[in-house]
Amino acid sequence: MTIERTVTIVPEAGLHARPASAFVQAVNDHEAEVSAGRPDGDLVQAASMIAVTSLGVGQGDDIELVADGPDAEAVLDELERILTTPEAELETDDG
Amino acid sequence: MAERTLHGTGATPRSGVGTVVWYGRDISLPDPDGVEVDPETEVQRFADAVDTARAELESEREATAERVGEDEAAVFDAHIQFLEDPTIEDAVETMITDGIPAPNAVDAAFSEHIEQFEGMDGRMAERADDLRDVRDRLLRLLTDGERVDLDDLPGGSIVLSERLTPSDTAQLDPECVAGFATITGGRTSHAAIFARSLALPAVVGVGDALESVEGETEVVVDGDSGEVLVSPDDTERVAAVSDSGAAVVDESVETIDGRHIEVAANVGQPAELEPAAQRGADGVGLYRTEFLFLDRETPPSEDEQYEAIREALDTFPDGRVVVRTLDIGGDKRIPYLDLPEEENPFLGERGIRRSLDPDSDLFATQLRALLRAAADGAGDLAIMFPLVDTVEELDAALEALDTAAADVECHDADAVDIEVGVMIETPSAAFMADELAARVDFLSIGTNDLTQYVMAADRENERVGDLHDPTHPGVLRSIHQTVTAAHAEDAWVGMCGEMAGDPDLTELLVGLGLDELSMSAVTVPEVKTAVSETEYSTASERGDRARLAATRSKVHTTLDT
After folding, report:
1. Tally of domains in chain A
2. Is the pLDDT of residue A88 over 70?
3. What is the chain B residue with the closest CA to A56?
């Protein structure tokens, strides 16, 4: 199953630093293949910290997510949560 | 004429000639044309290196999380993510399939993204450092022990490197090194300060041009002009070899009219002790204890600190070793001590402010180690506290010292009498010098910080470099005020900033009444010679005229005539 979703970035740091780290971690924790990109640009592997960071998306920018796999819905829900939570409130796995 | 001349910043007024040895970054990659690559084996080798690196990172992560905290351990998560990054992995595997050896492929794949990150701003540039760390970790595993050993260099080596860290310089055998040059770094970088204390010829901040100098080439490193001469001619070679500076003066020195001035060395790590003694230092006027806390994951034990201070005291059996208690904060950061992020770290929690709280346990441990070393070591120990502003801070520090002394007497040894002092680095301390001096044996003026705070000019900011100059009359007056107040309380006054090591300013400082001057070991002979050529009565008059001048240029006119 392939699904798409567009999310507006909330964390102040944009998709960098901790939010990027949490984002890539979440992709790796799921089975679905995920790609990401600016709405008008090419898609890159969402499991690559380097690729994701190089998108250069900041606070307020839109990012398009495409997931393909059994848990596509779940991974997009988790990614949306990360991208719409202000950085200070973002919890890591270890609390 | 040399084949080529590269320009950087001179770190030491010395020059040396020798043969290039590359250290660090240049982890001797195999010649890609010289080897037959079996892609399958190389891909497997790469996969194994990634596995080993992951295991290393995970265990370092665990250790850090346990000893320091989750926040600090997070950097290892980022490293693991870069290590497993599919963008890198795909690029490396493609290159290996095209016949490139694994180490070269790793180097190329990482370097591309390092450059990309470096081009971005702020937080992204830091990511470049993370990538560099991960790359070097993989390359170390893939090239297996081909890294140059700094403690086993052939004599007459000139070490070239991206940068030199404290753990690198700690391994360097000064006997075998004729000098070094680095791509990055300025006059106050660790490498530059290290070079001065060992009197090693060094040029820092040469830039990427340095990378083009091949190993085994002969070069001259001229720390005076800040030049690196590649393949020098005979005249240049001879000039470099014969430049060994002023003759060493072993005896203590006095002015023509008999005023004794102690000339001591600033020391930042044990490797600098012996060279300081060889250059004729009477003792140590500033022993920075921070090195003991660097490049490790937990603070050093009381015994480790005892051993280090003991070694210093035994190196100067007839001299005095002035130890500064832990001075972190500002630009000096130690990961496991969890320093706060501050808007203005130089105006924040640093020096004694941290030692009283929150680092009071570390402070107590350090004081006990110092007192035990004083009881057993040959030389005389003196302790001074950094960045004291108020009498309250000094009283609290003295109380901590009393507690430590009682503790040592109870358990270890009879406490011996030691001298205690305060560093004068802030305007408040200079104004309060009389009250502070009444409570201690000596004051030591740290001119780098005192100038920064009196002039409100960041010492690292070149745009205000003109203001950050200790020969402004405002700074000279604060020095004079400190000396006068201390002498009225029978306390002696030393100076341990860069200013003390400038032989052109020796007469001025003697004239202002300083009793001790402490500096990087390299200029000890020049300053000793300058003291013995000074007449105190003339210097004193000149000091008065200099401090009473209205402008810096008038100060300089006074000094030149």
Report:
1. 1
2. no
3. B120
Cβ-proximal residues to B263 (8 Å cutoff; 6+ apart), any chain: B252, B253, B280, B281, B282, B516, B517, B518, B519, B524, B527, B528, B531
**What 3-state class would DSSP assign to B1?**
coil
What is residue B458's predicted lDDT score, i.e. its pLDDT?
Answer: 83
B158: number of CA atoms within 13 Å, CB side? 31
B126 DSSP 8-state letter: H
The answer to whether B411 contacts chain A (CB < 8 Å) is no
Residue A46, in any domain of the structure: yes
User: Is residue A13 less than 8 Å (CB to CB) from chain B?
Assistant: yes
pLDDT at position B25 over 70: no
- For CATH 1.10.274.10, the residue range(s) in chain B are 39-143
Give the architecture-level CATH label for domain B255-560: Alpha-Beta Barrel (3.20)
- CB-neighbour burial class of residue B12 (10 A; exposed 0-12, middle 13-18, buried 19+): buried
Tokens of B413: 């040894």
User: Would you call B496 a catalytic residue per the annotation?
Assistant: yes
Domain B4-24+148-242: assigned CATH number:
3.50.30.10
**Catalytic residue flag (residue B190):** yes
Whether the pLDDT of residue B236 is over 80: the answer is yes
The overall longest dimension of chain B from CA atoms, in Å, is 81
Chain A residues whose CB is inside 8 A of the B93 CB are none
B81 near A CB under 8 A: yes
| pLDDT for position B165 | 65
State the pLDDT confidence band at A95, using cuts at 50, 70 and 90: very low
Least confident of A56-65, B78-87, B103-112, B180-189: B180-189
Nearest chain B residue (CA) to A28: B81
The H or E element containing residue A23 is: helix A17-28
Does A94 map to a domain?
no
Which residues have C-beta within 8 Å of that of residue B154, sequence separation ≥ 6?
Answer: B19, B21, B176
The size of the A-B interface in CB pairs under 8 A is: 43
Percentage of chain B lying above the pLDDT 90 cut: 48
CATH architecture, domain defined by B39-143 = Orthogonal Bundle (1.10)
User: Which residues share a beta bridge with B263?
Assistant: B517
Total-model pTM: 0.62
Q: What is the mean pLDDT of chain B?
A: 87
| Chain B hits for A49, Cβ within 8 Å | 78, 81-82, 85
Name the residue range of residue A74's domain. 2-85
- Judge: B87–A18 Cβ closer than 8 Å, yes or no: no
Residues of B within 8 A of A94 (CB-CB) are 70
* A93 pLDDT above the threshold of 50: no
- In chain A, residues with a C-beta closer than 8 Å to the C-beta of B120 are 56
pLDDT digits (tens, 9 = 90+) for B471-493: 999 999 999 999 999 999 999 99
- Model confidence at B239, pLDDT cuts 50, 70, 90, reads confident
Kindly report, residue by residue over B283-332, the tens digit of the pLDDT.
999 999 988 887 778 899 999 999 999 999 999 999 999 999 999 887 67
Q: Pick from B340, B235, B327, B252: which is nearest to B290 by CA? A: B327
Determine, yes or no, domain membership for A70: yes
**Residue A24 falls within a domain, yes or no?**
yes
Neighbours of A29 (CB within 10 A): 12
Q: How far is B106 from chain A (nearest CA, A)?
A: 15
* CA-based nearest distance A44→chain B, Å: 9
pLDDT at B242 over 80: no
| Cα–Cα dist B73/B61, whole Å | 5
